Alpha-arabinofuranosidase (Anaerocolumna chitinilytica), 606 residues
Amino acid sequence: MQSDILQSKILIYTRQPYLDYTTSLSNSIHFAYCEDNGGFKPLNGNYGILFADADINEKNVIQEKGLINPCLFATPDGTFGITAIRVASEGREDAESKGQILLWTSKDLISFQCHGLITLKEKIFVREQQCRYNHVKEAYEIRWRGEDGTCYRNYLTNLSDTSSISAAALTEPFVIEYPKTSLERIIPGNVLEVELSVGRAFYNRWELLHNVEMKVPERVLVSSKEQLESITATAVYSDGSAAEKKVNWNCGTVDFSVPGTYCVSGEVVQETYPFPIASGYADPVILNWNEKYYYLATNDNRDDIGMFVREGNSIAELFAPGFTEAVILDVDEEKDFIQTFWAPEFHLIGGELYILFAVGGKVWAPQCHMMKLKKGGNIMRREDWEEPIRVRRGDGSFLAEDGITLDMTYFKADGVSCLVWSYRHGIGTPLDTGSMLYIAVVDEKNPSVLISEPVLLTRPLYGWENIQGTINNEGPYSLVTEDTVYITYSAGSASRYTYALGLLSIPRGSNYLDAGAWLKATTPVLSYYTAGGVYGPGHNSFYKNANSNLMILYHGVSGVDNPGPRSTAMHRVHWNKSGIPVFNLSEERDVAPGLKRVETEIIVSL
């Protein structure tokens, strides 16, 4: 058995832009891992893990940033630091960070704290840099090369206090040697050796989770076919987590009326829905209500005009040929409901069923509305829904007097009812703010009126969020567990392959209006790199299926160059070894094709 004295290695790097992997994605921190002197394996599917924050200028407009030349180093207390040179969009020199470098710290290389920019020397661009701890000086030594080729050295005594940096001093010329690897189209930083236990924990977090084993009992005592059919398989995953799976047992050779021992085989059952399950339907949600299922989505097939609901006795029936669909809200010029019937969502609020949605009038400007089902009403009958109400602030003014509001969602935790939505100002102009997520508290008895001021939760500051000319934080949806409130949201280009899911989280019992208490994941939790052939996965929701599996429902497109319409997809949500939801477990990694067939020995007794 290996001990923690053995070492593993972590490579930090950026990537060269190539084909669909753009500069906005390439100029981020990537990691690869190896042990036993094996080759380096890229983590997170070779997608960036840590991105530079964008700047916001004096006009409230986001200025995209990236990073190059990263360096990973260890601290005396066994934690880590990362430095990198910040660049502007497309990798151009960044005038705002001239003479500065970025700094992060991390306890485990799983979560990261950004300390912003460190000033090395004003009025000179940093071309190359490296940081390490100097035990003699008891400080972090930063060696760097300026734009004129001159070499400098600074010392930083405290990573948490960037003002503890010394003045730059000239130093002798140096050459930074970068590792050679077999990885293609990467720009390597450096390699750091870490203890095996630390490396494996890091590896298990950032390796794409996958099915590594399928366990069934070796021998089972049964007396009937029903008892055999109740025997399940345990799917084991690369991090040590597990999930129970039904098995279709081949019991044709078993005579349950004759005692004896039989060897039986079976195939693990995997509930799958080939993409697309509903072509041209975006922003999908499913509701289980009064023993029926209802499907609601933005209908791109009808130019996003009207609100269409499907009803079925099962999930499969919602998407089978001949499905039942009704229009419960249509164009109404008198009410100024003309266009952009966007992102409708079912929500139970105070025991009443609502649909939260956005709609626009003759002048394009979608705004958040909600409408309630009448007592005893039928979801499929438009006359059973009350008149839609536009969401207002506590003072009676509309949620936004300028800009657009959309993608409203609702959650309740610890007795607190919250609305979360997306707001954007100046879209299509040089003063475009990008879409931003806001949160506010409401009274569930009157949820269309805020009882708190809106609080900004997140803006699209990472390179994967402000990409391909689309600057988005939108499509929020909550997942409330016993200890955490999660909010997934969407970022990137809403109708192209870079659309992806981000994640906010906060411990239960927190102040949900405290934006600083929410943790924002640095990398997408579902992207075209991890969605198993679905491109641009985004604007998701959750529901539980008939087997009580939590499912993630979202839309995507079919490719990079010819994406086709936004269409509905879904797959199972997994819970990892730490009890954290995994949203990117594709069909092939959920149940490995080579592990579907299982065998067991049964003893039939009467």
